[in-house]
Specification:
Length: 237
């Protein structure tokens, strides 16, 4: 109920503006920003009230079909906050920034990443797709530049020539991925959010993010699947 929602203050507005300019923020940055905004605008600040503070902003963003969402970095398990557009499916949102064949390359890259064992696709495999595009073939040089743009715009992350979905992309596209890849997309058994880079139980198919695997098995000498209790056959990261 918007009428009942806490009022937006200048502190909330500043927080939203900074987050909008970043697109995504790590948890510790968001907490520091929360504090700074409250201090600058002399608004009541409590260090454990970030979620409430964001909740107030979200209640005012609701009519605009926007939302600040919390997600997790799959590489280190840290919390992140991203501003998400709920009105458009994310692929249509990207359409304003990219051409048809660039979008097709992104979709195909996403296929590779989501269908892979480990949540990564090699640059070689992605570049090979560039001359198979239906919309309009892409030269290798051109495709390399487009991949750079995807990384810069935080749709993809790259490490040693391997690409995966950026944390921001996962937060924004979770619903899209779960509905479009419902046979293969899985949620983490521990934190229940979408898991792209994950380990999967060989017996029952239960998947877990690597940081969640690390946390969950920390105290176990003989790691067993939380679902079927079979031996966990992967190396614990």
């Amino acid at each position: 109920d918007i009428a009942m929602a806490a009022q937006m203050s200048d502190a909330h507005r500043r927080f939203l503006q900074v987050l909008m300019s970043h697109g995504i923020m790590e948890g510790s940055e968001a907490r520091a920003l929360h504090r700074r905004c409250c201090e600058i605008h002399k608004v009541y600040y409590a260090h454990d009230k970030l979620e409430d503070f964001i909740g107030t902003i979200n209640s005012h963003l609701q009519p605009l079909f926007m939302q600040i969402r919390k997600g997790m970095s799959e590489s280190d398990g840290r919390a992140h906050y991203a501003l998400v557009n709920l009105a458009e499916t994310e692929i249509t949102k990207m359409a304003s920034d990219y051409t048809e064949n660039e979008l097709e390359l992104f979709r195909k890259t996403m296929d590779l990443i989501i269908l892979s064992e480990n949540g990564f696709a090699s640059s070689t495999d992605i570049l090979n797709l560039a001359d198979e595009l239906k919309t309009k073939k892409m030269k290798k040089k051109e495709a390399e530049q487009v991949l750079k743009d995807f990384v810069e715009d935080k749709w993809l992350s790259e490490k040693n020539g391997e690409y995966t979905l950026h944390t921001r992309c996962i937060i924004e596209m979770e619903q899209y991925i779960l509905s479009n890849y419902h046979d293969v997309a899985r949620k983490c058994n521990i934190c229940h959010s979408l898991a792209i880079q994950s380990q999967v139980c060989e017996s029952c198919g239960t998947g877990m993010h690597l940081p969640c695997v690390r946390k969950y098995f920390r105290a176990q000498t003989e790691p067993r699947c939380p679902q079927c209790n079979d031996i966990w056959s992967w190396d614990i990261p």
